[in-house]
Amino acid sequence: MGAGAVVTVRLSTGDPAGVAVVTLDRPERLNAIDLPTRDALRSVWRALRFDTSVRAIVLTGAGDRAFCTGLDRSAEVPQPDSPYMTDDPLLQVGPKSNDLWKPVIAAVTGMACGGAFYLLGEAEFVVADPGATFFDPHTAYGMVSAYESMLMAARMPYGEAARMALLGTAERIGAARAHQIGLVSEVTSPGGALASALASAAVVAGHPAAAVQGTVRALWAAREAAVAAGFAQAPHLIALGNLPPHEQAELFGARRREFRVR
After folding, report:
1. CB 8 within 8 A of CB 39
2. Is pLDDT above 80 for 193?
3. Is residue 11 packed enough to be buried (19+ CB in 10 Å), middle (13-18) or exposed (0-12)?
């Protein structure tokens, strides 16, 4: 980054040994991802490919309100003027999308919604604070939940992924329910998600790196054919189903504030 650049993704390494912590650092924006943050994440993932001292990674968000709330709605995302071409700004924001085959453990505190699922969908497993919530607002704002739902359908039962996507902002999945359905592997004590993720990462980092990375690659191989087939349909579904941006903005401005946590 150039002098004076705003740091929106922090990378720390070596504590515990062999573990890197990647932190989304925009708490004032609920760790929403704008384009500079997207680019910073991609740079971090690609840099970690070459850092042999790092053998496991923890991904988290700054503050206690949100892990990540997806794409920052204030971000300017230019699109080609054609129904046959769409540029999804978050499509290559995750570790697997950047050819990183070191294990990633997500530590979730607060909200994780929408575009956060690009990151959670490419993590090996998720550890959550008891106050964590998960939801997908797309349909409430007149947008197709395509890539996000496809990734979540690979992490939880179909009915749960469908319910989350279709109910939009009206309902959130609490940490306990997320654990029941397999989205979350552990619910910690309050404030303990990061420490738990670090403890697991330290164990993994102590194993021979080649065996660990081969296992990560094997696990992803079991999923990637289905994900790739779904992703191939996503641009067309989004182009057909999304409302025009100004209508989306109207729905966002009139959004309901109340919601149910289950």
Report:
1. no
2. yes
3. middle
DSSP-assigned letters across all residues of 41-107: HHHHHHHHHT-TT--EEEEEESSSSEEE-SB-TTS-----SSTT----TTTT-STGGGT--S-EEEE
The CATH architecture one would assign to domain 1-76+86-189+209-257 is: Alpha-Beta Complex (3.90)
pLDDT digits (tens, 9 = 90+) for 224-236: 999 999 999 999 8
Residues 69, 111: contact at Cβ < 8 Å? yes
Provide the greatest CA pair distance for the chain: 53
Confidence of residue 2 (pLDDT cuts 50, 70, 90): very low
* 157 cis-preceded (ω within 30 degrees of 0): no
pLDDT digits (tens, 9 = 90+) for 104-163: 999 999 999 999 999 999 999 999 999 999 999 999 999 999 999 999 999 999 999 999
Task: List, in sequence order, the alpha helices (H) in the chain.
Answer: 35-49, 116-120, 147-153, 158-167, 175-180, 193-205, 209-241, 245-253
What whole-number distance in Å separates Cα of residue 92 and Cα of residue 118?
8
pLDDT (average), residues 179-206? 98
